[in-house]
Structure formats: structure tokens, C-alpha cells
Amino acid sequence: MKPSELAEYLSTVLSHDLRLSLMIWGPPGIGKSSIVAQAAAGAGLEFIDVRLSQLAPTDLRGLPVPDRQADGGGIARWYPPEFLPRQGRGVLFLDELNMAAPTMQGVAQQLILDRRVGSYVLPEGWFVWAAGNRKEDRASVFDMPAPLANRFVHLEVLPDLESFKAHAIARGVSERILSFLSFRPDLLHRIDPGRPAWPSPRSWFMADALLRAGLDADGVIGAPAGAEFRAHCAVYDALPDLDTILAGRGGSIPCPQEVSTRYAAVIGLALRARSAEQAAHGLQWVQGGMPAEWCRLFMLDLQRAMIGKGLQRPLAEAMQKDPAMKRYAKEYREVMAAA
Residues 73-121: pLDDT tens digits? Predict the structure, then answer.
């Protein structure tokens, strides 16, 4: 499933209070833990992220401490770790489950199956979910024991450009990154076994932070993707004056014919629009010089950007005032509703 579909699935599980253990599979760097954290926050629940691969069995089970008050003084009681919840409601997320050693998975199995480990009992209001990478992702994983696997609801999530763009637009990611990935969607996520740095949704967010600081992004997306991205940035710097187009004075500016330049122009206009009037001017320019598929791309990204700015209603009102825009809005109503 797509990341957006996973987010919807998790929200449904929480809203119906389904205390089923979920196992989320997917390649590294696509945001599995972030999606789970957002689902918990959206439901008003606490969120505890436990990286099992970094723990020893005693870290989860606790330490045996002699109880000298017991009869004969020959009893040891297990003191559970402080990170396990004692009260409230939330999601206990066991990340990197299948990267943990088999002995660690054995301890986690008791927590997942019985909602307890040693003397510790998980409070009633908590969900237990887990995540891990697949063998084909070249991750150092162990086979999951069959009894443990059989108690999970298994969900597989894969990278998806539209899900990434929706999240990235909401977070204000650079126009250059979004237009580049629209032009080269296969570079959203590409594991390179020969290099430590390679592109993924997580590394593109890191690249955005580096670019804002004036630093090179090769250290997080890798040199091959970095070289292509720099070439795209050179194209972006040669774009028509997008601000002039948004101001309604773009009638004499021709639409670019080169594909990567079109991606840059269309997404740049959608993200830069700061009012319904500017958005309408941008839409008119795209509609006047590009085929329908480019108009669809503009509508999708414009709708996401307008939602983030709280301008979707003014945009709809502005479109209703122009007969041509009104017909266009009707044609792409389904596109806008799906954004």
C-alpha cells in the first residue's frame, strides 16, 4: 500500500479501537515510524518508539533484583524498564523488530502475544505495533518465528511520489526538490548497495535542510542523484519569471517545451501562489499553453498548497467568477477532491 493508504488504515484501526498487533513491512527511509507517530498524534494518543535492534533482552524484560523482605530472602523480582508505559492510552511501537537478535525477538514475542513481559503488564489502553525491513532491502534482518508472525496483521508499504509530495508540500519542502522528483520519480527511493548515501523520502527531507543552509546534498542522496539534481537546479534557475505570471502579466511569456522545465514551472507556480487571485493567474497560464496532463499536475499540487494555506475556498470562489475557469473546475473536480 501507499504511505497515504497506510496512514488511513492506521487511523481506522485506532478509531475502531482494534487491539490487533500490526507488523508494517517496507524499505528503509520511507517514513514508517513517522506515519505511525502521526496516526497516534491524530488520535490523541501517546507514542513510544522502541528500537528493538538496539536493546538486549534484559533491557526489555528488566533486571532481577533480590527481594530481601520476602520469606527467606530467596526471591528475585523483575524491575521493568522505565520506557514501558504504566498508564494512559497510546501506541507502543516496536521498530526494527526483525533486525533484533532471535533472543530479543523471543522476549518481544511475550509482550506482543500476551501483552506482558516478566512481571510487567501492558496497560489496557495501549496498542502494540511493530515495523521492519524486508530481506530484499539488503537489511541485516533475522527470520521472524512463525508463532510470532501468525499473531500479526501484516501490512506492506512502498514508496509513492504523490504521498511524499502531499507531506512535503505541507512541510514546505523546496520547489526544486519537488519538481525534480516529479521529473525523476524513480529517484524518490533507490537503494544503492555500493554507496552509503542514496535517495529515499527520509534523505530528501534531510537534503532540503542542507540546501536551505547552502550545503551540498550529495552526502544524503548520493553523488549520482546529486549530479542529476544539480543539473535540474540549473534548469530551474532559467525558468520564466513565475512571479510575473502569478501577477497576471504572463500573457506574453511562452510555456516551456522541455519536459524538466515544464515540471519546474508548473510546480513552482502551484507552490508560490499566495492568494486565490495568483492561483487563478497561474492556472490560466498553464491551461493556455500546456496539454491536459500538465494542467492536472498543476491542479493537484495547487490544491495541496491551497489547503496548507487555508485558501481552498477563496480559490474556488475565484474560479467561479470566470466562465472558462468554471468549466475547468468542473472538469477537474474529482482531481481536486482526491488531492
Answer: 667 777 778 888 999 999 999 888 888 878 888 788 888 888 888 778 8
- pTM score, two decimals? 0.78
Q: Residue 132: what residue type? A: G
Which of 227, 225, 250, 223 is CA-nearest to residue 239?
250
Taking CA atoms, 132 is separated from 28, 84, 158, 162, in Å, by: 8, 20, 13, 23
CA angle 32, 34, 35 (to 5 degrees): 65
Secondary element (H or E) of residue 335: helix 333-338
Whether residue 305 contacts residue 169, with contact meaning beta carbons closer than 8 Å, is answered with yes
User: Which grid coordinates belong to 74?
Assistant: 530467596
How do residues 47-65 score in pLDDT, each as one tens digit? 999 888 888 777 777 777 7
Report the top-level CATH class of 3-156.
alpha beta
pLDDT at 323 over 70: no
Are 93 and 33 a contacting pair, CB within 8 Å? yes
CA distance 6 to 32: 9
The whole-angstrom separation of Cα 85 and Cα 120 is 10
Domain segments of the chain as ranges: 3-156, 161-338
Task: Output the CA angle 143-146-147, nearest 5 degrees.
Answer: 130
